[in-house]
Amino acid sequence: MTVKIGYLGPKGTFTKLAVDAAFNGEDKQAFDTIPACIDAIDGDEIDIGVVPLENSIEGTVHLTVDYLVHQVRLPIVAEIVVPIQQHLLVRPDFSGDLEEIKEIHSHRQAIAQCHQYIHEYMPKASIHYTSSTGKAAEIVSTRNTSIAAIGNKLAAAEFGLSIYRDNIHDYPNNHTRFAVLTKDKHNIHIHHEVNAEKTSLLITLPSDYAGALHQVLSAFAWRKMNLSKIESRPMKTGLGNYFFIVDVNQPYDDVLFPSVKAELEALGCSVTILGTYPVYQLNI
Length: 284
What we know:
InterPro entries: ACT-like_dom_sf (IPR045865), ACT_dom (IPR002912), Chor_mutase/pphenate_deHydtase (IPR008242), Preph_deHydtase (IPR001086), Preph_deHydtase_CS (IPR018528). The protein is α/β, with parallel strands linked by helices.
């Protein structure tokens, strides 16, 4: 049976690059938004979904995290890390200078990754946010020549655009983490070397009191469990109410994690395992 894989589309997005690099031969379907892709997994329209989770320059993709926490709980079963190269894309018939570009279209994260370049070379261009870098390329391909998109080489090829300036992101070490989501982890067949193992936890505190976060972190520290990330996000129940996403650099086991969970629950915290999964670092 063919496995159906959904991703943030349209064609030409970095998510599509990650999907093509990680999976071979499967049926691949693009979705206009991250929630639409996640909903399709939940509704059994597709077997696997791949959505952006975090960028090394701009941080967490909050829409992904918040939707997984507040709307649809699906386990993270793998993580794909790929290098990101942002290019300025124009129609082939554009022959002007940078200052002649009146509009720049791209995803909010891509715009932020190139903020300094835009500020220095195209300060008068208006910014237009799109649902993805691929969508930005699609828009530019159908409009007049005085607009540009920020995206990758795949987007340029898919929509017949030219790379006017390459590698315009502000920092060279630009990578994005993509979460692989599915109801059945047996659907996952990524034929690449595993670079690491990780476990992600959702932790909520009983109330905001002095030393609460210190007590949470101490439960990991004295067990010598290395945390690669801890981030707070609003519970959306009122000011000052937050949950924490914690990434632990080891797979779930039957000793350390249950004891951490028991210790935190004794403090009144709620602990949910969002996923324990392999990490694949791909060079594309």
